[in-house]
Amino acid sequence: MKNILVAIDSCEATTIASPIIERTIELASAFSSKVWILHIVPRSHPSSFNVDNKILRREAADELHHEHEFLQHLAHCMQERDIDASALLVEGATISTILKEAERLDVDLIVSGCHKHSPIYGALMDGTEEGLLCKCTYPIMFVPVPEE
């Protein structure tokens, strides 16, 4: 297993001690794998409110800068554990972007968080987990996300 792609759902809720990162570190250490830390941000759309676009762009840029710094820090923490890790912050739709990046990076495994939802939620919503299962040809390891 040479390349592992770990898809980070939330920068605020993820740390080096998060289960998804711990499992990724275990696998990367066992197989001497390269880890790609991926966080996807949705495409921005013009505001329908009467708000100055300069303010919105500045706020979006600040948030992206913060997320980029976080991902770089997470990669650095993995590197301190002798894991070859790189961070990617990509704009796009979640499932298609994960699949596109997995192909581009020639990954051997995708690691993703798995949220517990009610059956009603699953029937009404097309979540990332279900979308990946339906469309992905790569092995996927889902790591349960602790409930807050």
Compact overview of the structure:
The protein is α/β, with parallel strands linked by helices and 148 residues long.
What does it look like?
- The chain is of the alpha/beta class.
- The protein contains five helices and five strands; from the N terminus they run E-H-E-H-E-H-E-H-H-E.
- Residues 120-126 have low confidence and may be disordered.
> What is the CATH homology-level superfamily?
HUPs
How many strand segments?
5
Shape: globular
* Strand percentage: 15-25%
Reported for the largest beta sheet, the result is:
5 strands, parallel
Going by helix content, strand content and strand pairing, the class is alpha/beta
CATH topology: Rossmann fold
Task: Supply the number of structural domains.
Answer: 1
Question: Can you give the mean pLDDT?
Answer: 83
Q: Distance N terminus to C terminus? A: 32 Å
Query: What is the level 1 CATH name?
Result: Alpha Beta
Radius of gyration, taken over Cα atoms and rounded to an integer in Å:
16 Å
SSE series: EHEHEHEHHE
* Oligomeric state of this protein: single chain
Helix segment tally: 5
Please give the CATH architecture.
Answer: 3-Layer(aba) Sandwich
Would you identify the regions where 5 or more consecutive residues have pLDDT less than 50? 120-126
Strand line-up of the largest beta sheet: 3-2-1-4-5
Q: Report helical residue fraction.
A: 40-55%
